[in-house]
Amino acid sequence: MSFGERMQARREELGLSRLEVAAMLGVSPSAVSNYEKSISFPKEEVILRLFDCLKTDPNTLFQDSFQAGGQVLTHPERQLLERYRGLSPMGRETVRSVVEALCAYRDDLEASRTEQEPRVIPLYRSPAAAGYAAPVFGEDFDYIPVTDEVPQAAEFAVRIQGDSMAPFIADGSVAYVNRDPLQAGDVGVFCVDGDILCKQYYKDPAGIVYLFSLNRARADADVVFGPTSGRTLACFGRVIMHALPLPGRA
After folding, report:
1. Residue among 240, 135, 129, 127 nearest 188 (CA)
2. d(CA 160, CA 155)
3. In the chain, what are the domains?
4. What does the pLDDT look like over 40-71, one tens digit per residue?
5. What is the value of pTM for the model shown?
6. Buried b (16+ CB within 10 A) or exposed e, 77-99
């Protein structure tokens, strides 16, 4: 027996007409008829009033199928409905008011997200030598929208030139970067003695920093220096990509 058939059977058992049920639910008699014929399903606030109107509980109306709007209700949802029925009329009205306010807030948020322009980030496009990341910070860049194809955590992007990071970061591809702290094995964008590079980072216990090329055929482009080397190193950000093993540690 469907929900609509159980609803009709319970209404008739109580000797109520569709007109009387409609008045108690705040809907039209034709809506009640549609519920009973399974043409449509009552909204949440209507179904809560229906339990009161028919002096029944969710289990009785739904039984094993226990569906609402075509979706099976979970056990916590059943408990919530049953607890609602145990409240005083004032308590039920309070619950309805809170639910309506939360739904309105959710709808406003969804509407505002739809109306907002997509966030944009800079894509740096200055030319660089092979194996270097393209940005020379402060120079020319284009803004690109953060769409579904762009990681939401990205703060800027760089265009990679050369094959030293292939095949993981191909020549001419765009790397998306944020400013999270680097961990061993992360790929970052660095400034080394004024040169902008994209490399895999590792610092050993002795304080020696290694900047590896992911393309080990280009190990000649690795950079190694220690704290007393006199060279300068700055990290502009972490490239957003899956973790990769360090050379010789796969």
Report:
1. 240
2. 16
3. 3-85 (1.10.260.40), 120-239 (2.10.109.10)
4. 888 877 887 888 888 876 666 665 444 444 45
5. 0.51
6. eeeebeebeeeeeeebeebeeee
